[in-house]
Amino acid sequence: MPKFIGAIDQGTTSTRFIVFDHEGNIVAIDQKEHKQFYPAPGLVEHDGMEIWTNTLEVIIGGMRKSGLASEDIAAIGVTNQRETTLLWNRNTGLPYGNAIVWQDTRTNEICNDLNEKGLAEQIRAKTGLPLATYFSGPKIKWLLERHPEIVDDIARNEVLFGNMDTWIIWNLTGGPHGGVHVTDVSNASRTLLMDIKTISWDKEMSDLLQVPVSILPRIVSSSEIYGYTRFALENVPIAGDLGDQQAALFGQACYQPGEVKNTYGTGCFMLMNTGTQPVISKNGLLTTTGYKLGAEPTVYCLEGSIAIAGALVQWLRDNLQMIEKSSDIEPLARTVKDNGDVYIVPAFSGLFAPYWRSDARGVIVGLTRYVNRGHIARAVLESTAYQTKEVLDAMEIDSNVKLASLKVDGGMVVNELLMQFQADILNVPVVKPRVAETTALGAAYAAGLALGYWQNLDELSANWEKDTEWIPNMSEDARLVLYSKWKKAVTRTFEWL
Q: Which residues fall within 8 angstroms of residue 64, CB to CB, at 6 or more apart?
């Protein structure tokens, strides 16, 4: 069997191709950013064709860097930004306009309308999800309402919907010339269109959102051969597909119920493995599918989603120009001993878990003449840790499991100040693995399992090794004071719209 596994990691800001060896070590990596479009406040779009072109370029770049050929790659796994919604024509392969990104809030009216009709609880019971602008279903409805020409093409069976995993797999396996139109259980569960218990498209939900079932991809497991590459690589099986946060859970070897990981990226996403039964949250969390390996039962998760984490650092860099590059934030935050009583709640497009308030907008509170750039930088970092604590508190109540430690990954974990403050405010150890690219690794693991490159989950668990651990070092009194002020700051964001 070939010696390596490839992973395509199609994220919110960039697309990457990573080659892994059998021990989960990175052999080569190539990355390319794509443009962010902000047509108006609260609207975020991506160009699907740019992302597809970038995908081809990073595969070619990664293969060149590794010095490997197609026959050296046993399989490819795909992981993706979830909920980002694209409609395209199956004959031309061209999208109907830009993709609507997961952060986009243009479907607010659609969601409010369904909410006013008293449908929110029915939707949550069926899909495991709150009624929110975050998910793909309302985005599809919005696109169909704004583009009547798409409706004509649907009648001719020409229209396909997909999140980014579906778009990439369809293109890689031939596009208009026989491309495979599939999505895995983890991505399907983020649409508001899938029954969380039966793992199938639900007619009641598709009728409610006026989304024709004919445009939806076939739901498959997260680990099986979907098709073979026709571009960039020759005839390599595509055999893994996981939404980015489920992929990180899988790459972090959270295979036992109660195990938790948190990914610090553009947003922040905490997932807890709850086993083969869905736990419907009573505390503002999402019930979502974690993964499904071939014919085995689906594994479920509780998830807390934070919209703005690393994006707040980018905002400080790009919009306020307080720092030149993202890595400058830690030295700036270290110029002060605390936050100077400043709290930043980054509800730029509403609040996600556990509040689900689309009427909220961001605030900076506690400003005095004493406050300087260092305090602002520190408040930016601390906001991610506070939001994580809110999600974890909800998770512990829903699951009846007390967290022993938190596995972390994502771009922000290089920030020692943030990770130490996270351990302090949670009062549990925070642990970073040896291989930090856990999202891509999870997709690679799913693909490798499908072909027997790895035999079982025990083999994958043996690959996981601790790199760094941060131990809590804060008094209970200090923790309570800081957190209560954060909670007060959050209430100031409500009902802005």
A: none
Interstrand relation of 73-80 and 237-243 (parallel, antiparallel or unpaired): parallel
pLDDT in tens, 275-296: 998 988 888 888 999 999 999 9
Structure letter (DSSP) for residue 275: E
Q: pLDDT tens-digit profile of 230-264?
A: 999 999 999 999 999 999 999 999 999 888 999 89
Strands (E), 338-477: 343-345, 363-365, 406-409, 430-433, 466-470
Those residues whose C-beta lies under 8 Å from the C-beta of residue 121, and which sit 6 or more positions away, are: none
DSSP 51-101: HHHHHHHHHHHHHHHHT--GGGEEEEEEEE-SS-BEEEETTT--BSSPEEP
Contact 300, 246 (CB under 8 A): no
The overall longest dimension of the chain from CA atoms, in Å, is: 66
Handedness of CA 49, 51, 56, 61 (dihedral sign): positive
Average pLDDT of the residues of the chain: 94
Residues whose CB is less than 8 angstroms from the CB of residue 48 and which lie 6 or more positions away in sequence, other chains included: 86, 88, 95, 98, 99, 167
Strand partners for 289 = 300
- For residue 348, the cross-strand partners are 350
Give me the amino acid identity at 138: P
Report residue 272: phi and psi, to 5°.
-120, 125
Q: 435 with 24: CB under 8 angstroms?
A: yes
